[in-house]
Amino acid sequence: MRKPIIAGNWKMNMTPSQAKELIGELKPLVQDAKCDVVICPPYVDLALAAELIKGSNIRLGSQNIHWAEKGAFTGEVSANMLKELGVEFAIIGHSERRQYFGETDETVNARAKAAIAAGITPIICVGESLEQREGGKTEELVKAQVEKGLEGIAAEDVAKLVIAYEPIWAIGTGKTATDEQANETIGVIRNTVAALFGTDTAAALRIQYGGSMNPKNVKGLMAMPEIDGSLIGGASLKAVDFSQVVNYDA
């Protein structure tokens, strides 16, 4: 059985003082969670968050990671820097990084390899736009993103990482894929991994849904056999909302 993983992507929200307040509210609300609970604050909050979650079941993630160990990469943060802070997960290839900052499948692959080498678990994001979905390109696009994103990574490492399926058309729009649509596309991802790395690896891999999961739709989505959790945006900024998603089976 794959243990579900619910991760909150705070995006560019929460000053350190706001982060302190949110984490303080969140800790008691999720302390009995049966899933892995991860928060991914902005870089400026990571050191503080690492201290605040000590002794709790909340684990720390970053919103990006660079492929180089160090060097002239202004504005970037290396795996070793994050590891020293206590970061255990790193979101890689989020649609906003692809759309606004030139992220490609090749850079996603390089970042994922750097994370794995440092002992940080990648959360690799894949997903299609509304135009691509309506054009019948979803399966083709998602398969290509998975194949390129995982190129050159060992099967044993693939089994331990996380993939987040985030339909771009459902992020921040209030639209959500139906339970069946999400399950179907996540099934495509798992089948692609099975073809590349074998059925055992695909069976072990955790795949999240990342398209506006919230307290109202979480039970239906999490009841789907292929869905192993969620990468949550807006709902992760409110302790009660995030905890209701985390405790979906309570």
Structure description:
With 250 residues, this protein is an alpha/beta fold. It has a single domain (5-246), classed as Alpha-Beta Barrel (TIM Barrel), CATH 3.20.20. Helix content is 44%, strand content 15%. The chain is built from 12 helices and 8 strands. It has an 8-stranded parallel beta sheet. Helix 1 runs parallel beside helix 12. The radius of gyration is 17 Å and the shape is globular. The model has no long low-confidence stretch (mean pLDDT 95).
| Count of β-strands | 8
- Assign the CATH class: Alpha Beta
Calculate the mean pLDDT score and round it. 95
Morphology call: globular
Provide the CATH architecture. Answer: Alpha-Beta Barrel
CATH-wise, what's the superfamily? Aldolase class I
Domain module tally? 1
Task: Give the helix/strand layout.
Blueprint: E1 5-9, H1 16-30, E2 36-40, H2 43-52, E3 58-62, H3 79-85, E4 89-92, H4 95-101, H5 105-117, E5 121-126, H6 130-134, H7 138-149, H8 155-158, E6 162-165, H9 179-197, H10 199-204, E7 206-209, H11 218-222, E8 229-232, H12 239-246
Parallel strand pairs: 1-2, 1-8, 2-3, 3-4, 4-5, 5-6, 6-7
Helix pairs in contact: 1-2, 1-12, 7-9
